[in-house]
Amino acid sequence: MKTGLIIGLIVLAISGTFAQKPTPPNIVVFLVDDMGWQDTSVPFWKQVTELNRRYRTPNMERLAREGLKFTNAYAMPVCTPTRTSLLSGVNAAHSRITHWTSPNKDKNTDYPDTTLNPVDWNYNGLSPVAGIEHTFHATPLPTLLSQNGYYTIHTGKAHFGSAGTPGSDPKNLGFQVNIAGSEIGHPASYLGTDNYDRPGNGKPNRNAVPGLEAYHGKDVFLSEALTREAIKAVEVPIQKKQPFFLYFGHYAVHTPIMADKRFIDKYLKAGLDSTEAKYASLVEGMDKSLGDLLNFLDERKLTDNTVVIFMSDNGGLSTTPLRGGQEHTHNLPLRAGKGSVYEGGIREPMLVRWPGVVKPGGVSEQYIIVEDFFPTILDIAGVKKPKVVQPIDGKSFLPLLKNPAVNDTTRALVWHHPNRWIPAEGPMLHWASGIRQGDWKLVYDHRTAALELYNLKSDIGEQQNLATAHPDKVKQLALLLTKQLKTWNAQMPTFKKTGKAVAWPEEVIP
Amino acid sequence: MKTGLIIGLIVLAISGTFAQKPTPPNIVVFLVDDMGWQDTSVPFWKQVTELNRRYRTPNMERLAREGLKFTNAYAMPVCTPTRTSLLSGVNAAHSRITHWTSPNKDKNTDYPDTTLNPVDWNYNGLSPVAGIEHTFHATPLPTLLSQNGYYTIHTGKAHFGSAGTPGSDPKNLGFQVNIAGSEIGHPASYLGTDNYDRPGNGKPNRNAVPGLEAYHGKDVFLSEALTREAIKAVEVPIQKKQPFFLYFGHYAVHTPIMADKRFIDKYLKAGLDSTEAKYASLVEGMDKSLGDLLNFLDERKLTDNTVVIFMSDNGGLSTTPLRGGQEHTHNLPLRAGKGSVYEGGIREPMLVRWPGVVKPGGVSEQYIIVEDFFPTILDIAGVKKPKVVQPIDGKSFLPLLKNPAVNDTTRALVWHHPNRWIPAEGPMLHWASGIRQGDWKLVYDHRTAALELYNLKSDIGEQQNLATAHPDKVKQLALLLTKQLKTWNAQMPTFKKTGKAVAWPEEVIP
């Protein structure tokens, strides 16, 4: 009986401590690759679209029901800048990681252009240490979380920096565990029977997915293998009663667009284009992973103390023949897709669930941007005044989580992509900048020095250029964009013919 | 002057000899894999179909203009039986090579069925020597041509027999040269940059295409590499002034359906399903190869003395998700596709050009079948009474080449497929037999013992089963089919439940 009493007292004492200093919540960032704003059965627009009806994402629907939907969440037009902004809190124009990093070190991935010279951007990506050439040095989010008691797990696609630099390995960026992440930006194959590899010329593919040997030769789709491993990894902090940060970066739904056999039949039967059917199966396989994770949290009674943030890293790919159907229609009603500073390239499906803090079924129309994740997640974790080497551009959206009605139309968001992405031309796919303030958006084409103005409230598809009708708005936004880019010491490409730099937006105000 | 006179006399003498004993013509068999009856801009039906408008095959158009079009040419429902019938002159029911042979020896490729036991067919394929288990022993066509002065070249897909048996190597079948042929039935990859291979689990794919090392690592599509090598190989008999037999078995357009980059753009721009666009590019790449070969014959002034026979080995694949679009619509107006004894599985695009013998632009509606190639080609080559170990079922169509109006409605063609092809069920894809006489066709479903009767003249799509309306015709054809199958000692599967064999068609006449 004495022992019982003592144990009882200890339990009371512990409970007391917890009451005063609550355990910080677990945090899951569920980041999908190349998923567009409409690639889901959750409607992010004011109406349910044909694309919403096409895709089947019941677990995203669950997350939307139980959490908060952000209808104006933004990322960068391509993947590395989004990922490094998320981990650093710094805008891509500012970090100079404006484009996707090659798996190989010291390789500028800009496709050669006949008009402009590439800028000397940080094409080796993010670095947790100073002095690495062509990298941006920052104190990464996982490092800070790890220092503050979190067990930090990286799963899936990393793509933060090139091989041979510290940033290529998630374990150098503050992750205590790394599952299948490296310098690669997409998998060579989604198939376990391929060993997640597709060798060419007798050599392993540079995009072979590392570290999933247990699934080699088995009929386990990559999305599934990652999910099983992530759940296994989370068991460790659960046992240790330590809060965890799970960064789950799916390789899906990036190319190669391969069928996830578990889900493809219904899309084929629906008569979908065959590549689009495969794509839809990739989306549903990713959603199944989300569901497995949510179910796991339920089973382990962790749901109430876990924040789940769902996000994608850029707009849906909309070039053919990689996608099926007509090019640049894959993010409708949004214009264009991955690579573009039009909405199709940057607007993302975003959901946040946090029981007890975020009211279920809410919607926030406030625009936010991916560098906001850094200060927000630190806020959620209760990390005050973190010691970081970089200047933070992001703004915490924790207030929005608590009150989705908050509406700030004065803030300006900036995109800057002084790079050429692919051989093909397309709607603002290369060499462009953009700024949004309130409902207004200015887009700047570097090669033609053209400024386009759109009102996103009345024209989400960016079809009506209002630059001529609203010269004052053009001027105001061009000045604001220029000021911000100059403040960040952003890079502008130079013309091949003259050697002169592309003009700042303010210099070309009509 | 004296020398000149002597040379003149020699020339005269040689010419004289030729006049008495003409050089036999060169013979090209251009055999495409899995190409359907409608996968071409050449209309083989009475009207131009949507599929004819989709595909671009200008060189087949040329061949049709300059030669004879067979609108009722038949092969077997799957590839090996067609190929071994062509090389042996024996019907598949008779040779007992009724299904596709595995690259691996002693492997029955029948997919397991819940109702029927597989038959003990010759699943190691064709053999040029006696005593090899599960093979059909025959004297192959190339052996006979080689013995009769032909230089015999094999290019591309062989698939005559399993590895470890003599029939797997075209050089054992009378071919003096073999380019890229082996026991495999399709390429692991069409890409030179893949080395025509797609290793899995760290091992080379069993379907890696052999012998094209010169193109490894190069951006040369398989159809192109084969064409270049075939043309190079033909130089040898040209130099030797020896007639040649070129058997050019394209791997195209079999799966994996990969884009031939040279041709895909227009199909994508036309808004075609993405897999179907790739398929169309495979078709056009194959047609380009035909054009290159025809141009080469022109350049070397060989056109007039070369017979070119164009054929496919079975109907177009019509199952999804391997094909795009709705399943079983890929050979319309014909019913079903590869694997089936309905017309979509067996009717083939066939063209024959032979300047001076075949009148340009002709059409023959006479039905012929692939075992006819054997006696026909021997006739063309002037080989009389060849010594062969096998009984010949085929009938020479040389008279048809000379007079396409010949019309024989008494002959009966037989298909026999006592095998299960794939996991999926589909229109007569498994366990079926068929017979055609005149315009009538009887189809026999082994599992249900159902007899279906169609009139192909009025109903090419086999939509109206006339069995009830024409019991006498059913009876006559069922008796004829049974007689022929029994004559050939054809195999019938047995029921798992009872151990009893499937009834002969004559036993189930209603």
Architecture blueprint of SSEs:
2 copies of one chain form a homodimer.
Chain A: H1 2-20, E1 26-32, H2 50-54, H3 58-66, E2 68-74, H4 79-88, H5 92-95, E3 116-117, E4 126-127, E5 136-137, H6 141-147, E6 151-156, E7 177-179, H7 222-240, E8 244-249, H8 264-269, H9 274-299, E9 306-312, H10 343-346, E10 347-353, E11 362-364, E12 368-369, H11 373-381, H12 398-402, E13 412-417, E14 432-437, E15 440-445, E16 450-455, H13 471-487, E17 494-495
Parallel strand pairs in A: 1-8, 1-9, 2-11, 2-12, 4-5, 6-7, 6-8
Antiparallel strand pairs in A: 2-10, 3-17, 9-10, 13-14, 14-15, 15-16
Protein described:
Chain A has 510 residues and is of the alpha/beta class. Chain A has two domains: 23-402, Alkaline Phosphatase, subunit A, CATH 3.40.720.10; 412-508, Arylsulfatase, C-terminal domain (2-Layer Sandwich). In chain A, 27% of the residues lie in helices and 16% in strands. Chain A is built from 13 helices and 17 strands. In chain A, the strands form four sheets. In chain A, strands 1, 2, 6, 7, 8, 9, 10, 11 and 12 form a nine-stranded mixed beta sheet that branches. A four-stranded antiparallel beta sheet of chain A has the order 13-14-15-16, covered by helices on one side. In chain A, strands 3-17 form a two-stranded antiparallel ribbon. Chain A starts with a helix and ends in a 15-residue tail after the last strand.
